[in-house]
Amino acid sequence: MKSHKFADHTYLEIRDLVDAGCAAIVPTGCTEQQGPHLPVDFDTWFAETVAIEAAQHAACAYGVKAIVLPAMPFGPTPEHRGFGSGYVNIPHPLHDDFAYHIMKSLAEQGFRAIVVWRGCGEHRLQEAVDRFNAKFNPGRMACLPSLPYNEIWRQVADPCVPGGHADSFTTSIALYKRPGTVRLESIPSSRSREVDWDDPDLDFTKYSDNGVIGDASKASAELGRRLWQEVISTAAEVFRDALASCVTD
Fold first, then answer.
1. Closest residue by Cα to residue 19 from 101, 102, 112
2. Rounded to an integer, what distance in angstroms lies between the CA atom of residue 120 and that of residue 27?
3. How many Å apart are CA 221 and CA 156, to the nearest integer?
4. pLDDT of the chain along its 249 residues, tens only?
5. What is the pTM (predicted TM-score) of this model?
6. How far is Cα 199 from Cα 201, in angstroms, rounded to an integer?
7. Cis check: omega of the bond before 188, within 30 degrees of 0
């Protein structure tokens, strides 16, 4: 496969990939504040870039055939509205419906296995995946893997450093992969207050004055390099296992 990006191919090439048993990966991003030091597109960039590099790794390491769609750039982001700018908030039902119709389009083209890869932990999307599977399985199957990032942070970095959003995990990866986007002088030195993640009306302004949840001050490009290597290898394993499950089911 000359490219793992759906958008790089003609429709005839995509048809051939489907006939060859290629799977589809659907990254979901969002547009929201990322503290005072990172651009609002980080989650969208992150979801798509991880998906593409992990698909490449999975192909080389495990023989997985997968193609990555362009990331959805908008999603539910109500917890960020209190910061007043830099967000596009899509209600959960509309977001679910949009994701469902993407999967439906892929199924109609013949894709048998689909992975929905979230760029934000607050993207639920299980209802969309369940709705899709209820209609198209057997024959077509979608899955929604859990995100491995918290466990990767605990393995690679200092687990005592709190995280959650625009934190040292995110900032380190940005410093490594696209350093020109990081406003170094604006990285906050303070930690946020502890977040109640079960709050149905989650509002980050209750816990942070600058948009960072956790601590961004421990970030470095070298840490980002080590985190990125683990992210890609772990995501490739997730893709391998998820797609094998889709085909089996």
1. 112
2. 10
3. 13
4. 889 999 999 999 999 999 999 999 999 999 999 999 999 999 999 999 999 999 999 999 999 999 999 999 999 999 999 999 999 999 999 999 999 999 999 999 999 999 999 988 778 899 999 999 999 989 999 999 999 999 999 999 999 999 999 999 999 999 999 999 999 999 999 999 999 988 989 999 999 999 999 999 999 999 999 999 999 999 999 999 988 888 665
5. 0.95
6. 5
7. no
